[in-house]
């Protein structure tokens, strides 16, 4: 039997390292494009201020990028380390987009990032601009291939199970790349990254205005951030991930869980704005609903029905039964590869094989599973409803907030009133963490909502883990979390230092100035140094 | 699927070679930076000198490390069972490598941002660990591959690994670790020699000649050990090189000195160890004569020869098993499907030359010596 403690710890480690990694990635995606835009303005107008902006935001970008690289390599290795059965079972499909990401995207990004920082005086203006755009291109392509891989876990198209090799194998790679779930995820995730970059630049610039420092740089940055941010906020909400949610059965389960929708609703389904869980599972005690909206968001139609959790569980029980037929046929094929009848049976029922594997949690000889165990396994297809329900509302709430936020600031920027209202600028500063809240909530919905599956309908998560020891995982989880937390704290400290020092050409010079400030601040106030503190 | 223009067998061979090229690519390109990192406390004594070294490799190290990322991705895509067994089996060793590698990007980026000597000394240590530890452990891992790893597969291809971290640290594996460390330090010394001058270059040359010599001696000892002290794995059943993967279908025997069988069957493969020795000897001479580029080339040839020697010796094995002989993975029974290997080859054929082109261009732009003066001019210097 599989050690569920090892599975739980492996899940915690993957979730924690992935969520840490995704603190840095969206900022890299957003800032790379915005820096390229700023440098383009510099090259077109020749105004030095735009170069200064590119350099200043580039310095912050660099510190963040280093953390993204440091936490990223762990992600690629962890599949083999902690999810070795997954790696065998779907590596034929899943490994390819990861390798292509390296070939097409990460190489580009990582090779040119050095030139971005070190090439200013070795390249022509246009040459350096091309380098900056190549970094941005590499970053975005990187997101594309990673999301093709992730999209396949949500909607495993273009592959079949091969009984001779005991794994999923590619039949149609084009389908894997153009997976509608992957494409929807790409647009949604990259837009979220752009939004993060825009909020980051906007909030820090607002702080500069409040402090009365670097006004020229701050105002120009805010104009770029407000327009780019408005477009991104609209895109991230309108082109939401949900467009891919009707593609598969479990995606429907995810919708039902996010909506706490226990029973099928007549089309078009209502969107629940707010609900209070009741003591009896299955029915909320109180809820506020917007008619039609959910149906419109998810199905883009008024007549497609969305199934509820109860109906989906019944359906899963049926698929476990057919999955067992496939499982038994697979055993016969493994015993005798020439058994044509068994192969015919398997070919007919293989798409439900993964459902039968859900039973492996309860017994090894699943062909003898009892009705009770099948009922338990079918209930396992329901993810925890309330964490998903609330995460979704937080994410969407933040999304709508930023549409309003950037629409407002876009207007203020067009009428030249960026710095006239201090409380509003403070709101902009305080809004800084919100994109991360929404993004982490979004990944939580995508991945926690996918449970119990590692690959939907194909491979249950618990069945995918490596047979490690609990002690291995305690050691690795402990070291990762300690190191990541220390490094994150250092990164934030350095960013604060860079922001305090403000935009300038020579960063080491900035470090010197800071030390002088510190020395002066330690002296008793005199008329000569009083002004420097503010 | 009937229209794939290359045979499954040929594709498996091509991917075996490509995997070797990617790993050698990392050892040569990433080895520059790992080697400089491992030499950091020895070759550079002042903050100024350390900054010179870090800025020597700073603009290009990130691209060089992608060879490792790509190597990992290629193992996953082309040989999923190898990726699954090695990464989970060597779990804690992988964790040590990862923790060391995590220190590098942040070390480069964070070190120069604050002037406090304690801050910089701490990151110097981090960068030293980030260079030294992976160089050593990658070699220890190769040593353990030659020894065979204690794992068994069941009929569903689930892995049962029975070793632990300390069992990896056998004398032979540590010897391989030192060979790996030696060749990478030589590579780092070659980089420093070529692009700095004065005391810094002198010290790098001193340690580089030592490590080149040590690599030659240790590589020879490892060869004798493999010939007289180690059991090689030999497949005794008929191998169908185009069959769907199924490692358990073969039978394997242990033969003393069996890892040398390929050299007598195909004498031209002796070129691999010969290049290993000649390259390192060339690096030794080059360092003594204060040559830059020729030393780096010789050292790269040496690295190529040494890693190719490991690959040729093991062929067709990728990862033999010490406890369940037939579970051992070979390129014939641990690859991806015919179609995946073909698609990945197409992508590689298109993108690898492009990567080589722009990497060469970036190195060209960043060429030239790194002197103390040039550091002061660049506001982005590490």
UniProtKB/TrEMBL annotation, chain A:
One of its GO terms (cellular component) is cytochrome complex. The chain crosses the membrane at residues 20-43, 55-74, 94-118, 130-148, 192-210, 222-240, 388-411, 423-446, 473-496. Pfam families: Cyt_bd_oxida_I (PF01654). It is a multi-pass membrane protein. Keywords: Cell inner membrane, Cell membrane, Electron transport, Heme, Iron, Membrane, Metal-binding, Transmembrane, Transmembrane helix, Transport. It is found in: Cell inner membrane. InterPro entries: Cyt-d_ubiquinol_oxidase_su_1 (IPR002585). One of its GO terms (molecular function) is heme binding. One of its GO terms (biological process) is aerobic electron transport chain. It comes from the Bacteria. Belongs to the cytochrome ubiquinol oxidase subunit 1 family. This is Cytochrome d ubiquinol oxidase subunit I.
TrEMBL record, chain B:
InterPro entries: Cyt-d_oxidase_su2. Keywords: Cell membrane, Electron transport, Heme, Iron, Membrane, Metal-binding, Transmembrane, Transmembrane helix, Transport. It is a multi-pass membrane protein. It is found in: Cell membrane. The chain crosses the membrane at residues 13-44, 89-106, 127-153, 165-185, 206-228, 268-287, 296-319, 339-363. It comes from the Bacteria. One of its GO terms (cellular component) is cytochrome complex. Its main location: membrane. GO terms for molecular function: electron transfer activity; metal ion binding; oxidoreductase activity, acting on diphenols and related substances as donors, oxygen as acceptor. GO terms for biological process: aerobic electron transport chain. It holds the Pfam family Cyt_bd_oxida_II. Belongs to the cytochrome ubiquinol oxidase subunit 2 family. This is Cytochrome d ubiquinol oxidase subunit 2.
């Amino acid at each position: 039997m599989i050690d569920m403690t090892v599975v739980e710890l492996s899940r915690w480690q993957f979730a924690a390292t992935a969520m840490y990694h995704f603190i840095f990635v969206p900022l890299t995606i957003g800032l790379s494009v915005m820096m390229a835009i700023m440098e383009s303005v510099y090259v077109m107008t020749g105004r030095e201020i735009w170069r200064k902006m590119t350099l200043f935001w580039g310095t912050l970008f660099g510190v963040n990028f280093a953390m993204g690289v440091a936490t990223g390599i762990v992600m690629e290795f962890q599949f083999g380390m902690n999810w070795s059965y997954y790696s065998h079972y779907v590596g034929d499909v899943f490994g390819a987009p990861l390798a292509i990401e390296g070939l097409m995207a990460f190489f580009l990004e990582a090779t040119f990032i050095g030139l971005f920082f070190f090439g200013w005086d070795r390249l022509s203006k246009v040459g350096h601009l091309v380098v900056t755009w190549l970094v941005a291109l590499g970053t975005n392509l990187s997101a594309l291939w990673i999301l093709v891989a992730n999209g396949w876990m949500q909607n495993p198209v273009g592959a079949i199970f091969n009984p001779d090799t005991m794994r999923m194998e590619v039949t149609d790679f084009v389908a894997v790349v153009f997976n509608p779930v992957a494409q929807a995820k790409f647009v949604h995730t990259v837009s979220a990254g752009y939004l993060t970059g825009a909020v980051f630049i906007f909030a820090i610039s607002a702080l500069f205005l409040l402090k009365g420092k670097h006004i020229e740089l701050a105002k120009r940055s805010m104009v770029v951030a407000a327009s780019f941010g408005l477009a991104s906020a609209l895109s991230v909400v309108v082109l939401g991930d949900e467009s891919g949610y009707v593609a598969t059965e479990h995606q429907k389960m995810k919708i039902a869980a996010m909506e706490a929708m226990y029973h099928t609703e007549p089309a078009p389904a209502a969107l629940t704005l707010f609900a209070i869980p009741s003591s009896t599972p299955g029915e909320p005690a109180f809820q506020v609903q917007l008619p039609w909206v959910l149906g419109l968001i998810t199905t883009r139609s008024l007549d497609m029905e969305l199934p509820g959790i109860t109906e989906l569980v019944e359906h899963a029980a049926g698929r476990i039964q057919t999955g067992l037929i496939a499982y038994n046929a697979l055993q016969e094929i493994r015993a005798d590869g020439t058994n044509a009848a068994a192969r015919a049976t398997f070919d007919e029922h293989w798409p439900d094989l993964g459902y039968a594997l859900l039973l492996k949690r309860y017994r090894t000889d699943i062909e003898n599973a009892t009705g009770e165990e099948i009922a338990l396994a079918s209930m396992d297809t329901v993810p925890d409803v309330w964490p998903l329900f609330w995460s979704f509302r937080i994410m969407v709430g933040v999304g709508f907030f930023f549409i309003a936020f950037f629409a407002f600031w876009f207007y203020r920027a067009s009428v030249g009133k960026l710095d006239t209202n201090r409380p509003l600028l403070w709101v902009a500063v305080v809004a800084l963490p919100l994109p991360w809240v929404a993004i982490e909530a979004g990944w939580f919905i995508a991945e926690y909502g996918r449970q119990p599956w590692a690959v939907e309908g194909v491979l249950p998560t618990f069945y995918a883990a490596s047979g490690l020891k609990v002690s291995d995982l305690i050691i690795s989880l402990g070291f990762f979390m300690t190191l990541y937390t220390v490094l994150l704290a250092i990164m934030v400290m350095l960013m604060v230092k860079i922001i305090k020092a403000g935009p300038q050409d020579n960063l080491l010079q900035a470090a010197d100035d800071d030390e002088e400030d510190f020395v002066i601040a330690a002296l008793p106030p005199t008329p000569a140094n009083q002004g420097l503190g503010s | 699927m009937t229209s794939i223009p290359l045979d499954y067998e040929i594709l498996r061979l091509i991917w075996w070679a490509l995997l070797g090229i990617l790993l050698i690519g990392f050892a040569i390109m990433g080895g520059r930076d790992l080697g400089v990192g491992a030499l950091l406390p020895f070759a550079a004594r002042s903050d100024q000198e350390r900054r010179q070294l870090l800025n020597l490799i700073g603009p290009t190290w990130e691209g060089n490390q992608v060879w490792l990322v790509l190597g990992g991705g290629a193992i996953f895509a082309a040989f999923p069972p190898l990726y699954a067994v090695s990464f989970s089996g060597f779990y804690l060793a992988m964790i040590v490598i990862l923790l060391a590698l995590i220190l590098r990007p942040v070390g480069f980026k964070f070190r120069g941002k604050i002037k406090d000597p304690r801050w910089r000394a701490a990151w110097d240590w981090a960068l030293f660990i980030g260079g030294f530890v992976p160089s050593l452990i990658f070699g220890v891992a190769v040593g353990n591959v030659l020894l065979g790893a204690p794992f068994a597969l069941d009929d569903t291809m689930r892995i049962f690994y029975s070793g632990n971290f300390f069992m990896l640290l056998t004398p032979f594996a540590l010897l391989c670790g030192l060979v790996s460390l030696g060749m990478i330090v030589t590579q780092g010394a070659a980089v420093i020699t070529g692009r700095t001058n004065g005391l810094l270059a002198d010290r790098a040359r001193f340690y580089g000649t030592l490590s080149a010599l040590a690599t030659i001696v240790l590589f020879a000892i490892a060869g004798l050990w493999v010939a007289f002290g180690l059991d090689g794995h030999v497949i005794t059943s008929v191998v169908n090189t185009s069959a769907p993967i199924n490692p358990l279908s073969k039978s394997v025997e242990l033969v003393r000195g069996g890892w040398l069988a390929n050299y007598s069957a195909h004498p031209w493969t002796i070129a691999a160890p010969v290049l290993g020795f000649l390259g390192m000897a060339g690096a030794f001479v080059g360092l003594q004569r204060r040559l830059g580029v020729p030393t780096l080339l010789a050292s790269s040839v040496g690295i190529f020869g040494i890693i190719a020697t490991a690959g040729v010796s093991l062929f067709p094995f990728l990862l033999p098993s010490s406890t369940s002989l037939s579970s051992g993975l070979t390129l014939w029974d641990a690859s991806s499907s015919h179609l995946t290997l073909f698609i990945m080859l197409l992508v590689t054929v298109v993108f690898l030359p492009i990567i080589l082109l722009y990497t060469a261009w970036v190195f060209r732009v960043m060429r030239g010596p790194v002197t103390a003066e040039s550091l002061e001019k660049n506001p982005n210097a590490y």
